[in-house]
Prior knowledge:
Structural class of chain B: alpha+beta
Helix content of chain B: 25-40%
Radius of gyration of chain B: 23 Å
Strand content of chain A: 5-15%
CATH architecture of the largest domain in chain A: 3-Layer(aba) Sandwich
Oligomer: heterodimer
Number of strands of chain B: 5
CATH superfamily of the largest domain in chain A: NADH-ubiquinone oxidoreductase 51kDa subunit
Largest sheet of chain B: 5 strands, mixed
Structural class of chain A: alpha/beta
Strand content of chain B: 5-15%
CATH architecture of the domain at 99-192 in chain B: 3-Layer(aba) Sandwich
CATH class of the domain at 99-192 in chain B: Alpha Beta
Shape of chain A: globular
Strand order of the largest sheet of chain B: 2-3-1-4-5
Distance between the termini of chain B: 43 Å
Number of helices of chain A: 18
Shape of chain B: globular
Amino acid sequence: MSVAAELKDSSPEKLLAPVLSAFWDEDRSWSLDVYRRHEGYEGLRKALAMSPDDLIAYVKESGLRGRGGAGFPTGMKWQFIPQGDGKPHYLVVNADESEPGTCKDIPLLYANPHSLIEGIVIACYAIRSSHAFIYLRGEVVPVLRRLHEAVREAYAAGFLGEDILGSGLNLDLTVHAGAGAYICGEETALLDSLEGRRGQPRLRPPFPAVEGLYACPTVVNNVESIASVPAILKNGKEWFRAMGSEKSPGFTLYSLSGHVTSPGQYEAPLGITLRQLLEMSGGMRAGHRLKFWTPGGSSTPMFTAEHLDVPLDYEGVGAAGSMLGTKALQCFDETTCVVRAVTRWTEFYAHESCGKCTPCREGTYWLVQLLRDIEAGKGARSDLDKLADIADNINGKSFCALGDGAASPIFSSLKYFREEYEQHITGRGCPFDPAKSTAWADRPEVNA
Amino acid sequence: MTTSSSEHGVSLGMPEPPAPAYPDDVRERLAADAREIVARYPDSRSALLPLLHLVQSEEGHVTRTGMRFCAETLGLTTAEVTAVATFYTMYRRRPSGDYQVGVCTNTLCAVMGGDAIFESLQEHLGVGNGETTDDGKVTLEHIECNAACDFAPVVMVNWEFFDNQTPGSARDLVDDLRAGRAVQPTRGARLCTFKETARILAGFPDERPGAVEEGGSAGPASLVGLRLARGESEPARVVHPRDGGPHDEARAAVHEPSPAEHLSSHDAPHQTSASDPAHPAGPAAEEGE
């Protein structure tokens, strides 16, 4: 391959694929007018021309997998809804984006809410639902404002309401603001919360597909999953499958944050690597090197510089010992204390533990006590084994995945940075200077 | 879960008498709103979270009177309502400021400077976590990840984004809030009071003209990938992560700029770091004043 061709292949134009983000820089990108100018609601027309069952099969064949963390095939979730059961069916969109590091659905809804609404209408036609809900975390009022407006516009234009585009489909869409609880991102806790209760996870089975909202068949999908559906309909499943890999097809939003030169959203085919993303965007901040990073939020085991070439798709990240999660690539450089980072994440899990099950409620509490001691130089060597032991008693033994998420940073940091924990213990304190990690550390003019 | 004992002093073991009801005119006004909220759901109990936002918009926090109103509206006991209201962190259980200033101190923001910002504001305002300034303007608290990590460190005021903050810009921000000067979030509409925000959260759209479109389509960091994909910015020169990873040798020939060099020729990071024009988070305006 010639040098020029090689350069071309690794250029951002080749490696990135803006679909959902394709017109976020246009004036009023969030409005119905602009969305329609970009062939908005064309996917819906194609969907309505198919039978609901064919539509479900089509989305299944596209290979779209959930973008909220677990990666479950979206079409299959739809297929699980029993048909002809005489009960109402519901679609609930999980817009409770709260996983530390995750910041994709919020900018998506802020700049392009109609992609979600179009996806919702398509999904409801497929699963025969006449009422859908968007459960948005409450702490993002600018997004709520635009969702209110987008729903109003969609009703006025006949994309919601009665007999949508003459298809006979009736659909109401309710935007519901949460009230501050990370646990509500867990789908069954979200359903309890939407029913007006404390957000605590439910025992499964029954799964939401059988007994979800109001004990009726319910699909719970992530924002990005549903928002990706219109583009698949509009451009075809082959177009979608041409991106990414056989088992992880399509495009997705990667969110780069932390000690990097250009933090932000990068929409690309699944399978891009962190090295490629950093190379095209200016790398780590000047004069620093990557120390550790998360592939998909704080609940996914951390990686180090060894993992720069791991393909960021479901299989690639899984094979390397972590999870793709929400593709929240939080990058920390060598100025960052791993013990401090993990302590803070663990405090978060302890704060957000809903209290329903003992391993998580008690385990996260004790993890925090041990970690605070270690960080403050008051730990003992035996505390490291105790940390691992407690994490082991939470992982896989809790009611929901919050507990597993709390154990992930503990296990992975002990695996890659045990020496740094030991340094805190033997040196009786933290060897790092937090001032060197700040965004303004290398700007001497900023005197904080 | 904490209890509201701080609000009423130490309990002497006697049950509290029932909370007083709202005055008739307030109750009628809220009841009309409540009917609208309940009508959005197939099952009335689903209206509880928005109803709690609604009563918070009336009084600035969730009072026993507010919870009684929710209970009566939905046919629940006040105990059932209290159980829910105390579970969620956005419901305030005591009188608080017009502006709730939340500093993200989850790991990424904390490391990027959120801890320093939070410390600086505590000192500057003379209040601790969850406390309100004497003038009743600002309640300071640390918050968890608010889904804006690419704009770290993040400060939220009444749940509007103030991106890429520094201790200096955050101190200016709270000074402006206390002095009653207009403050513009980095993304989103002009700031409104906490009560007005709570009404939007109850599901009543912001009626202020132009509020929906204020703040532009997307923040600068949200557009970084899009601009690169279009070739609108020069591909940034490679500063590679110097990881000692498998590719290092092969790439040894790649120019590695010194820290003094201008590293990225595209504009996004510059916009990001000074995205609030009123308070250039950046160096220049920072301290010299």
